[in-house]
Fold this sequence. Notes:
- The structure holds two protein chains of two kinds.
- Helix content of chain A is about 60%, strand content about 15%.
- Chain A contains 16 helices and ten strands.
- Chain A has a six-stranded mixed beta barrel.
- Chain B has a 13-stranded antiparallel sheet with strand order 6-5-4-3-2-1-13-12-11-10-9-8-7.
- The longest helix of chain B is centred in the first third of the chain and has 18 residues, at about 1-20.
- Classes of the chains: A alpha+beta, B alpha+beta.
Amino acid sequence: MTGTRVTLFRLAWRNIWRHRRRTVLLILAVAYAAFASVFFWGLNDGIIASVLTSQARFSSAPVLVTTTAYRDDPDPAHALPDLAVAVAVRRLPQVRATAPRLEFPALLRSAYTAQSVAARGVLPAEESAVSAVPAHVVAGRMIRGPGELVLGRGLAERLDVRVGERAVLDTASLAGPQAAGLVVVGLVATPSPAVNDGAVLLHLDDARRLTGVATATGIAVDVPRGTEDTAARAIQRILPDGLHASGLSELLGPLKAGLDARRASSIPIAVIFAVVAAAAVTSTAVVSVIERTREFGMIAAVGLAPARLARMVVLEVACTTAIGWAIGLAAGYAALIPLSRVNALGRLFGAVTASFGFPEELYAAVHPVYALYATMTILVAVLLAMAFPARRVRRLQPAAAMRME
Amino acid sequence: MRTTRWWLWLIATLVAVASAPVHAAPDPGALLRAIEDNLRGGSGRATVTLTVARPDRQTEYVLAIWTDGQDRSLVLVKAPARDAGQAFLRVADNLWIYNPRIKRTLRLPPGGRGDSFLGSDISHSDLSGRDAERDYTPRVVRDDATAVVLELTPRPGAPTPSGKVLLTAAPRTFAPLEWVFYDQRGQAVKRITFSTHTKLGERAFPTRTVVEDLTRPGYRTTAVYTDIRFGTPVPDACFTLRALEQGCE
C-alpha cells in the first residue's frame, strides 16, 4: 500500500512538471493569495499599532507611572509622594528615558477670550526623550525655563495669541487660586488634532508654583516601540504599593477599543478577499483538470482505477498549492519585515495620510498568526479544488474521455 | 576791600543755590497708590445704578456694595426683579456667586476676576481690589499742571493679558479721570472714564464711571454711585459666604 502511495505521489509530482505552464500559473495564484493575506493583515495591524504608538508619544506617554489614586482620579492632589522611583525605573533594561510631568486643569486667557485646558508642566530637556511634541514646534521654539509657554497652534488661533505675547494661566489646587502670566514662546502642530487644539506646555517649576504640588503627577517612560504594555508590566513589578504603571492599553483605552473595533470590521473584508482568492485558486485547478480529461481517460484506460486517479489529482493540487503557499508566505513576510523596521510607508504616504489624522510614522506588523490566516484561505481553496476535479475524475468514462478534444 | 566783597558775593551765591529746593522726581508708585485710594474710596458701602448699553437694548441694575477698600467686597443685586438676590463675594483672589433660584453658592474659577460682571463691560476686578498696584509697574509719562499720566506695564509673570494701561488723573488731587487698556499689539481695547467726583474725607471719589468696549461699537456700561457711606468700617461678617445669602444690613 505504501508503495502504491509513493508511486502515486511520484506520478503526481511528475505530472506537475510535465505541465509546467499550468503548474506555474496555479503556484502563482496560490502564492498571490497567501502573500496578499499575510500582507493585508500585517499592514492593517501595523497601521493600528502605529496610530496607538504615535498617539502615545503625542498626547500621553509610552508608559506612565502615577499613583493609583491619580489613575482613578487625575487630580493634582493625588501627585506622586516623591520622584525617587524614577531612578529605579531607569535602571530597567527596556527603559530608555524618564521625564517628570505635572498635569493640571486650568483656564487659559488671552486678551480676547478664555478656554479650559489641561496644562502640562515639564522639564524641557527630559520631555524631548519621551514625547514627540517638542520636535513639532512650527513657530518660535520649545520652552527653556520658567515664565514660558508652548501652545498647540489651533489653541493659539482660537485664543488669538501670538508668539511673543503673554497669556494668563489660572488654576486652583493645593495652593489655592493661582494665576500667572506666561510668555508664549512657541506653537506646535502635530498629526494629532487633540494636541493641536489643546496642548499647553509650561516649565515644571511654574506648574509646581501654580498648583502647590512639590513633585509631579506622573513619570513618563520611554520604551522601544511595540513593547509598551510589556514594559509597563515589568515596571509595575518594581513599583512600591500605591503606584501604578500604565501601558498603551490603559492610557489609550478608548482609542484602542475603537481601533480594535475597526480591526474587527476588517474581517468581513478579509473574508471576501479570501473567498475571491480561494475562487481564483479553485478555478485555476478546475480548468487544469478539465483540460487534461483526455489524458486522464488514457491513464484510466491503461488500468489506473478511478479512485486512485482521483487521489493522484488531489496529490497534484496539494503539492502545487503547498509550493505556492510556501512561496507566498515567504514573500509576504519578506515584504513585512523591512516595513516593520523602516518608516517607508510613512515617507511614501505621509502627506496623504496626515490629512486623515494618520501618524507620520507607519510601520507594518509581523506576527506568526498571519501564516494561519493565509493557510485558512488556501485550505478553503484547496478543498474546493480537490472536491470538484476529484469527483469529475472519479466519474470519468475512459472511452468517452479519450474522444474529447 | 573790593576783592573781599567779590569773594563774599560768590559764597552767598553758592549758598543760595545749594539751599534752593530741588524738584524731586515724582514717585510713580506713590502716584498710583494715591489714584487707587481715590478710586476705591476706602471702606464703606454705596448704592450703584449700573446701566448696560448694547446696540439693540439697554439693561439697568441696582446694586448694593460693601467694601473694605482693599481686596474684599460684597455686591448684592437689588433690581431688576429677575436678577434680584444674586450676590457676589470677593475675598483676595477668591470669588463666589450666589444664585437665589437654585439657592447655591458657586466658586468661580480664578480667572473669574477678569470676567464680565452681570454681562456688562465691567469686570469684577474693576469693581474692587487693587490689582493695578500688584500687577503693573507704573511710569510717569506726564506730571504737570493739567494732568498726571501714568503708563502701567505688566510685571513679569503678572496674571494679565493686557499690554499696557494709560492712566490719567487730575493734578494735586490725583482724582482718576481716565483709564485706557491696550492689548499687546498696541490697540486700545477698553476705556474707563471717571467723572462727577465727590469729596470723601481726603479722597476725590468718582461717582460716575463709564466703561466702553473699544472693539465693539455701541457697547458701554455706566455705573453711578449714590447713597455713598465711605469712611466707615464694614464688619468682617459682611465678607463671608453667609452674607452672600443673607446680606449685610
